[in-house]
User: Which sequence fits this backbone?
């Protein structure tokens, strides 16, 4: 297994501005491919490198996002951890308020969310716990539940 460092990690974290959704992309190409996949961003979003550095969108002459560039702000992994915690809290509330989502899979929100890191963890632990999805498949249950929780990209 290759070590992933801040210099080689090209993943991009998208977080809804209201902290109700998060999505991890493998790289900028995956972010830019979203419209081609038929997906649409469902509200205001913010982008971050996995080290906590905010990424600002760069637009081409056609006003389509063409790239993401590091902002002038210093990286703030602790703030990003707090925001991911808010995303996980939102998902937990939604799953508890809608047991029909988990009942048909013979599980509970508590069981599904047991491995999601809570306060005190590192940014990398929180990112690792994000529900997975890759283009070409529908993602795991938590990924799809996050979409069902009221925010879709």
Assistant:
């Amino acid at each position: 297994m290759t070590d992933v460092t801040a210099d080689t990690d090209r993943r991009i974290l998208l977080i809804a501005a209201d902290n109700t959704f998060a999505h991890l992309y493998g790289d900028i190409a995956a972010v830019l491919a979203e419209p081609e996949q038929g997906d649409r961003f469902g509200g205001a979003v913010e982008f971050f490198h996995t080290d906590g550095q905010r990424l600002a969108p760069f637009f081409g002459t056609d006003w389509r996002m063409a790239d993401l560039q590091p902002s002038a702000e210093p990286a703030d992994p602790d703030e990003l951890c707090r925001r991911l915690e808010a995303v996980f809290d939102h998902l937990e509330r939604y799953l508890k308020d809608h047991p029909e989502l988990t009942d048909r899979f013979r599980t509970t929100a508590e069981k599904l969310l047991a491995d999601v890191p809570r306060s005190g963890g590192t940014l990398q632990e929180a990112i690792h716990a994000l529900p997975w999805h890759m283009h070409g498949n529908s993602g795991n249950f938590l990924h799809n539940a996050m979409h069902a929780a009221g925010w879709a990209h």
